[in-house]
């Protein structure tokens, strides 16, 4: 029977299979609900039977734990109380295990302190620190009571795959009790089947560079005479790797593992990181931690991650461990502000289309929900987004809503820790987009919003037309963008302006300038404009002013310069105006702030120009800030704890920064100097750079032999080749005196206010764009240095903006550019996991025997632990072992019947833990009791909500009850909850089916859907009501007509034919009486017709009748 094919039903009642008996047994052992509810069938069985009725198919639960005082604590398959995990004092929690019972529990062999010679729990904190510091001479004694077994040989029986309550896979030997995270030798894990590759057990694999997967596991099949190697990939392809290429071995045990924190990876190399992120992305887990950094991979679809319910879940999580999320970063920043009083910052970076703008909005939304204000200023802060996106965002080939400027949003908090205001600072707006766009891109959103959303009066006032008729907008074939409604967005911009206090005159003036920029693009030179745009005045000290006539191209460039300056000045005015609307009413009331930086990531294109140099210079500065912050804090902590540590060397990118901004020979200072000298060009600028830095004079600089007008900068993220074309013009961020005079002479006070006077212009003329940007960047770095930073690295998974597509080489490149690989290495070399002694004791006391025995017997583990003055610090190998032992120990402490005592879980928890620990527990000393009370109330709320939802069969109420239950992992605990969740699933399915059926109009499926809805009394769904009306209140012929229309719309030719036939049948059935002979006296049957014919008697009447149809 073991080799037969087995079939089983899943939790939704669907038939699954075939699978082997061994695989079925592993499936049943991994899910308590499946083991309880599943039915199975095999060829030798007469009928389906419950899985639990088949001997040996459902593994027995683990044996009950025994406690030191002799009390037997019953085991159970699931936690009676799943308390929020206490992570105080810790910065990393690895796999994200949720505690089932928090606090002082015990494992099966006893409690900590048994060797101390005094009361076991007089001071558990000192017990833990002391025992971890014991020398190896104690190891033998500890090993006697808690032996640490070695991994058995592959032939050792008894290994089964199990899962913790939060879904993490581990392995237990039912014969020996041994546990491990890694699949035992010769054991095939069901988790590995979810990987995009299937590895053969026992084979040795290497991470091979691959164009499709970036890195793929390959098996060495041949080594050539020249040292090159051929590797066979699991998909059958063969890849050749050169002799000098170093390859990483594939850790097959870790290949299928999935960690919330990449620091937990056993082999934290580049291939494994790319593989792990891809695995998580395909499971819709777009957020992953790297220590304190959050990696966010853009899913390009709504995963329901930012609902108000999600905000509440993360806001009220307490000590509960939740999956990585942008809300966690925002929450850490806010809590850090409250606890330390130090200003915080959230630094969000990534390339265009990676999701920076969305991450910024979600951070601000979370802060607004958590902190609030006394005057709704937090809502005004959020209202700035539609305005800034309209004027600063555009469609690019990489992103339909790409921010074409950087911004730093500083949210101010008062003495009550509520929001009192904010400030926006913008960086490096892409002005060139106003006058020209690349293929597949378009101009800033506001131009299209104004043309399509303006009222008739506005269109007449501003002279608006269709966007395709304006020269600045019709440079692309299609001016529309999928999923962007320009008219609706324009209404949102107008509404935001009104709520932010813009006057009608200000709003009209703003849109008037936008329209003026459009008309500048269509400019025909005439009247006073001729002199401003077709000539320029040359002033030489000591000589008369000379008028220089410009060529047609020069005049066009002058027109473009005016348009770019006008739009840039308008954008600066908007930012300043928004800042006035959201500024604190009393600046003295500001006590602290949280800054959110949405900045462009490192950029490398086929052609890189001045803008890319400025952007990459910014990222060099931010990378240096990250390195210094990370290492400085790490080493300061180690020194304060008095532990032994080795200084971790890191790559200092100061030489690259010196190359870019060092005076007087840096790239930007040298560019400024070229503007002050006569007869200089882009070519003379590059020649000067080659002379200053080329030929090996600077290690971070290189020349391009094939292109003398180009140069290379070796950035921290890799070398970038820059084309010098246009460097001088782009850096010369000034406008001619003639154009300044033209705008200064305007009759519009608003337009005049956008531009400085001639005298002010002359004073600022010496400041170049590069110089301005350096000053802004210096101010930004000063602001960041006074904050405690939090980092979000946004990653774009594919170039086509397709949902679910993961292009590994592209992700690999972004991870390298963003410094993620170095961040993982930094954290791995240090001690990324650290708990205060008390927090460590509270978390791991339940498994102290196994932990201490393992540490003292395992030299490899012991070298990864440091016991400091106030904290215990350790690396990921230790953390993995701690979490595994703790998981098993806690599961053995679960009592029977799963929440059979939930009417008073606090008392039950107190009694059982006191029995286990042998001491009296107070609420103040052991927060688990307060948590238990919180959990009891949460259980009651969930049960009440579910009971009401089931009574009225309301989807909204069912969803709310389900969310309450899911927040405390209570969906599968009681029969009532399971029934409620099953009802919710049915309602969801019916709603989805009904939404589809009102389009497809399939009669049989419609009847089944309505019948199913009636069976569970589900009547609130509008689509089901439509189905019912169509089936029972619509005439059959009208219903058939609607079906025909649906079939045609869906291009279902076969169904359209069948419905057409049915329609004709219905017509003839309804109209058959009208074709009866009695209604037509002139008609007759063939025999009657033959008898009426006036022929002789000799005529064969039968033959004549047969010829009836021929006539």
Automatic annotation (TrEMBL):
Chain sites annotated for binding ATP: 350-357
Pfam families: GYF_2 (PF14237), Myosin_head (PF00063), WW (PF00397)
SMART domains reported for this sequence: MYSc (SM00242), WW (SM00456)
Annotated GO biological process: actin filament organization
A GO MF label: microfilament motor activity
Myosin motor domain location: 257-887
WW domain span: 153-186
InterPro entries the UniProt entry points to: GYF_2 (IPR025640), Kinesin_motor_dom_sf (IPR036961), Myosin_head_motor_dom-like (IPR001609), P-loop_NTPase (IPR027417), WW_dom (IPR001202), WW_dom_sf (IPR036020)
Region annotation (Actin-binding) ranges: 777-799
Alphabetized UniProt keyword annotations: Actin-binding, ATP-binding, Motor protein, Myosin, Nucleotide-binding
Cellular component GO terms held in the UniProt record: cytoplasm; membrane; myosin complex
Family under the similarity heading: Belongs to the TRAFAC class myosin-kinesin ATPase superfamily. Myosin family.
Protein name, entry field: Myosin motor domain-containing protein
Naturally occurring in which organism (per UniProt): Plasmodiophora brassicae
């Amino acid at each position: 029977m073991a080799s037969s094919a087995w079939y089983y039903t899943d939790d939704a009642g669907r038939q699954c299979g075939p699978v082997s008996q061994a695989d079925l047994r592993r499936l049943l052992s991994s899910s308590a609900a499946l083991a309880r509810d599943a039915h199975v069938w095999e060829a030798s069985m007469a009928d389906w039977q419950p899985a639990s009725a088949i001997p040996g198919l459902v593994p027995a639960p683990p044996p009950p734990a025994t406690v030191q005082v002799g009390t037997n604590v019953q085991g159970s398959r699931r936690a009676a109380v799943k308390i929020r995990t206490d992570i105080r004092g810790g910065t990393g929690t690895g796999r994200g295990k949720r505690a089932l019972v928090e606090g002082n529990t015990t494992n099966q062999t006893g409690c900590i302190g048994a060797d101390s010679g005094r009361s076991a729990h007089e001071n558990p904190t000192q017990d833990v620190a002391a025992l971890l510091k014991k020398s190896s001479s104690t190891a033998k004694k500890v090993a006697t009571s808690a032996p640490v077994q070695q991994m058995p040989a592959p032939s050792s029986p008894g290994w089964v795959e199990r899962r913790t309550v939060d879904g993490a896979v581990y392995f237990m030997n039912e014969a020996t009790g041994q546990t491990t995270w890694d699949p035992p030798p010769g054991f095939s894990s069901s988790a590995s089947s979810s990987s995009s590759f299937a590895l053969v057990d026992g084979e040795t694999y290497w991470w091979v560079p691959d164009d499709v997967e970036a890195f793929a596991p390959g098996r060495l099949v041949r080594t050539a005479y020249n040292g090159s190697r051929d590797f066979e990939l699991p998909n059958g392809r063969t890849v050749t790797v050169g002799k000098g290429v170093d390859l990483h071995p594939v850790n097959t045990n870790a290949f299928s593992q999935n960690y919330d924190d990449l620091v937990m990876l056993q082999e934290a190399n580049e291939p494994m990181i790319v593989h792990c992120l891809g695995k998580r992305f395909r499971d819709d887990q777009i957020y992953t931690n790297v220590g304190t950094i959050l990696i966010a991979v853009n899913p390009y679809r709504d995963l329901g991650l930012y609902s108000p319910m999600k905000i509440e879940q993360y806001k009220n999580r307490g000590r509960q461990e939740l999956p990585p999320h942008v809300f966690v970063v925002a929450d850490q920043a806010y809590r850090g502000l409250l606890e330390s009083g130090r200003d915080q910052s959230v630094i969000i970076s990534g390339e265009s289309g990676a999701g920076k703008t969305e991450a910024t909005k979600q951070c601000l939304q979370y802060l607004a929900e958590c902190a609030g204000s006394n005057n709704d200023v937090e809502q005004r802060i959020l209202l700035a987004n539609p305005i800034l996106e309209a004027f600063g965002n555009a469609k690019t080939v990489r992103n339909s809503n790409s921010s074409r400027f950087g911004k730093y949003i500083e949210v101010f908090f008062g003495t009550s820790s509520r929001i009192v205001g904010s400030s926006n600072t913008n960086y490096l707006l892409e002005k060139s987009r106003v006058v020209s766009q690349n293929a597949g891109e378009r101009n800033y959103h506001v131009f299209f919003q104004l043309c399509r959303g303006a009222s008739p009066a506005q269109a007449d006032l501003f002279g608006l037309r269709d966007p395709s008729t304006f020269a600045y907008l019709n440079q692309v074939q299609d001016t529309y963008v999928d999923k962007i409604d320009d008219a609706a967005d324009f209404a949102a911009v107008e509404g935001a302006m009104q709520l932010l206090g813009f006057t009608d005159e200000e709003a009209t003036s703003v849109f008037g300038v936008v329209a003026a920029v459009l008309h500048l693009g269509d400019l025909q030179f005439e009247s006073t404009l001729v002199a401003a745009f077709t000539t320029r005045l040359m002033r030489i000290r000591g000589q008369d002013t000379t008028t220089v006539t410009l060529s047609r191209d020069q005049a066009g460039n002058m027109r473009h310069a005016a348009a770019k300056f006008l739009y840039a000045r308008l954008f600066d005015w908007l930012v300043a105006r928004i800042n006035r609307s959201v500024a604190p009413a009393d600046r003295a009331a500001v006590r602290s702030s949280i800054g959110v930086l949405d900045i462009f990531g490192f950029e490398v294109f086929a052609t890189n120009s001045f803008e890319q140099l400025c952007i990459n210079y910014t990222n060099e500065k931010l990378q240096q800030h990250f390195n210094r912050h990370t290492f400085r804090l790490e080493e300061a902590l180690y020194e304060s704890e008095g532990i032994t540590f080795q200084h971790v060397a890191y790559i200092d990118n100061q030489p690259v920064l010196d190359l870019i901004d060092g005076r007087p020979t840096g790239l930007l200072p040298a560019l400024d100097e070229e503007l002050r000298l006569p007869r200089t060009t882009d070519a003379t600028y590059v020649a000067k750079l080659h002379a200053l830095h080329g030929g090996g004079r600077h290690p971070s600089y290189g020349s391009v032999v094939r292109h003398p007008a180009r140069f290379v900068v070796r950035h921290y993220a890799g070398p970038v080749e820059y084309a010098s074309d246009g460097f001088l013009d782009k850096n010369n961020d000034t406008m001619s005196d003639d154009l300044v005079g033209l705008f200064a002479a305007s009759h519009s006070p608003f337009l005049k206010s956008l531009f400085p006077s001639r005298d002010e212009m002359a004073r600022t003329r010496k400041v170049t764009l590069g110089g301005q940007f350096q000053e802004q960047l210096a101010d930004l770095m000063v602001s960041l240095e006074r904050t405690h930073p939090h980092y979000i690295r946004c990653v774009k998974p594919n170039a086509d903006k397709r949902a679910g597509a993961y292009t590994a080489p592209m992700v690999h490149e972004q991870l390298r550019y963003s410094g993620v690989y170095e961040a993982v290495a930094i954290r791995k070399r240090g001690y990324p996991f650290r708990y205060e002694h008390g927090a460590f004791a509270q978390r791991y006391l339940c498994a102290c025997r196994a932990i201490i025995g393992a540490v003292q017997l395992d030299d490899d583990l012991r070298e990864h632990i440091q016991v400091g003055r106030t904290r215990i610090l350790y690396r990921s190998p230790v953390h993995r072992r701690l979490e595994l032992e703790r998981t098993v120990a806690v599961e053995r402490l679960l009592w029977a019947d799963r929440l059979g005592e939930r009417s008073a879980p606090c008392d039950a928890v107190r009694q059982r833990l006191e029995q286990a620990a042998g001491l009296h527990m107070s609420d103040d000393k052991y927060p688990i009791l307060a948590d238990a009370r919180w959990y009891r109330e949460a259980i009651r709320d969930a049960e009440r909500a579910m009971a009401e939802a089931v009574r009225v069969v309301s989807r909204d109420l069912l969803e709310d009850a389900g969310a309450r239950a899911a927040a405390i992992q209570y969906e599968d605990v009681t029969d009532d909850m399971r029934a409620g969740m099953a009802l919710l699933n049915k309602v969801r399915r019916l709603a989805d089916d009904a939404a589809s059926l009102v389009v497809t109009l399939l009669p049989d499926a419609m009847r089944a859907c309505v019948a199913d809805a009636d069976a569970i009394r589900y009547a609130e769904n509008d689509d089901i009501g439509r189905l019912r009306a169509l089936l029972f209140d619509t005439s059959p012929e009208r219903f058939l007509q609607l079906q025909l229309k649906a079939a045609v719309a869906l291009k279902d030719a076969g169904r359209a034919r069948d419905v057409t036939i049915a329609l004709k049948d219905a017509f003839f059935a309804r109209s058959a009486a009208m074709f009866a002979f009695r209604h037509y006296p002139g008609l007759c049957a063939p025999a009657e017709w033959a008898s009426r014919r006036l022929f002789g008697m000799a005529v064969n009447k039968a033959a004549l009748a047969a010829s009836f149809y021929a006539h």
